[in-house]
């Protein structure tokens, strides 16, 4: 067996960080990450992996929605990334209260989060779809801003319901369904009676949130953007 | 996704010019050492959990068999290289302790007419010598692995006769002719210059000392080999990702097994280092093999 073949890491790699996988490992990853994400909610990487391995129907759907929309199409072409290095934080802070940029920065500061903690995709076997899921992740904090939801368990669940309706990603659906498991009854009540119905209605009414070029709308007031997209005011 | 099984022969075992292998990648010697250090630094905390998951607990049996084959008696001085989290060291201590206890019991049985005072004194003097002067030195190149090992030892209550040394298998920080037994369990595969490690093993062993190596080896049965490959390449990295959040390290592990010399080749290398009566025993159809040799 004197083959001279040397398999380079990078064979079949479609983008940096890509780990090509065949169907069996993909299925095992989907199942394993689902179990692990439920077992240990602090394993955000498992939630990410679950999203990637189960998104084979929803992601092409999202990509097509983007392709058929002028702003979405531009996003797919230009591939903007939301990262601390690409954001002009001081400029955003200087914007008037109520504008998207100002409120976004406020959200980041209040909840002590950063856009740089989003995991890059590993198991999506299509380069464009990998960008779509990356965009979805990076836009998540803006969802919080637009919906006015904090990053506690309750707020995250509400955002997941909205995203589930908007994107159809199985990971969002699972997160929305199982997330409430760890909430107190009082919170569950608020969730069930007010927040979730509102999130669903907004999600159904709104146009695709991935079709908004947020980076070009920092000055736009949040309320005006909400109206434009079709998100109802938060309760 | 089909992976090429087997690697260019020239790269197995020794450095072929400046090019070396890291799993299925080709790298320089320095790069390889660096990458391997990083792999074990990252897997250290989940090392034991992963071993149990990947081998379904069978690795414990393999290690038990190694220590049974060693059959140490009280007074044996063991050097466990790449001993990281202490699995072999703890087993060695347990084994020697139980032998010692049996020795004590036999001794006391023979003295049927001892007074209570004499029995008490016997227990006293041997209580502080439960290992009968046996000692094990755990040597590992990786600080993180040693850290985990020390924590485990503390947690499980091992302290007597146990010491931890940071060191490189290719250049051991010990004098010649020091140890009765040298073991390296699932470690030699990660050594960059296996020939040097074997030479060092020979050097630090006493004349009459024994070399024991427990390592993944080659499965010759074709059907089993295919199942093993499937499991290795399609399941193990998934386990790595789900349990440890680290696909790449476990992919390296699986690839490094394929790169490692098979049973006969390793036997030849051990003989080259000067060992006699070199032999090997396959466990689980060659998934794992124990190689043994003596310094005479």
TrEMBL record, chain A:
Q: Which GO terms describe its cellular component?
A: mitochondrial inner membrane
| InterPro entries assigned to the protein according to its UniProt record, in alphabetical order | Coq4 (IPR007715), Coq4_euk (IPR027540)
Please give the superkingdom of this protein's source: Eukaryota
- The residue range of the signal peptide is none
**One Pfam entry name:** Coq4
Q: Which UniProt keywords apply?
A: Lyase, Membrane, Mitochondrion, Mitochondrion inner membrane, Ubiquinone biosynthesis
List the GO molecular function terms.
lyase activity
GO BP term, example: ubiquinone biosynthetic process
The UniProt entry, under HAMAP family, shows: Coq4 (MF_03111)
What is the protein's given name? 4-hydroxy-3-methoxy-5-polyprenylbenzoate decarboxylase
- State the organism named in the record: Cephalopterus ornatus
Provide the taxonomic classification. Eukaryota, Metazoa, Chordata, Craniata, Vertebrata
Gene name tied to this protein? Coq4
Automatic annotation (TrEMBL), chain B:
Which superkingdom? Answer: Eukaryota
Q: Does the keyword Amino-acid biosynthesis apply?
A: no
Any one GO BP annotation for this protein: methylation
Q: Is Transcription one of the keywords?
A: no
Keyword field: Methyltransferase, S-adenosyl-L-methionine, Transferase, Ubiquinone biosynthesis
InterPro entries, per the entry: SAM-dependent_MTases_sf (IPR029063), UbiE/COQ5_MeTrFase (IPR004033), UbiE/COQ5_MeTrFase_CS (IPR023576)
Q: Name one GO molecular function term.
A: 2-methoxy-6-polyprenyl-1,4-benzoquinol methyltransferase activity
Q: What does the subunit comment say?
A: Component of a multi-subunit COQ enzyme complex, composed of at least COQ3, COQ4, COQ5, COQ6, COQ7 and COQ9. Interacts with PYURF; the interaction is direct, stabilizes COQ5 protein and associates PYURF with COQ enzyme complex.
PANTHER family tied to this protein: 2-METHOXY-6-POLYPRENYL-1,4-BENZOQUINOL METHYLASE, MITOCHONDRIAL, METHYLTRANSFERASE
Main role? Methyltransferase required for the conversion of 2-decaprenyl-6-methoxy-1,4-benzoquinol (DDMQH2) to 2-decaprenyl-3-methyl-6-methoxy-1,4-benzoquinol (DMQH2).
Q: What is this protein called?
A: COQ5 protein
The UniProt gene name for this protein comes to Coq5
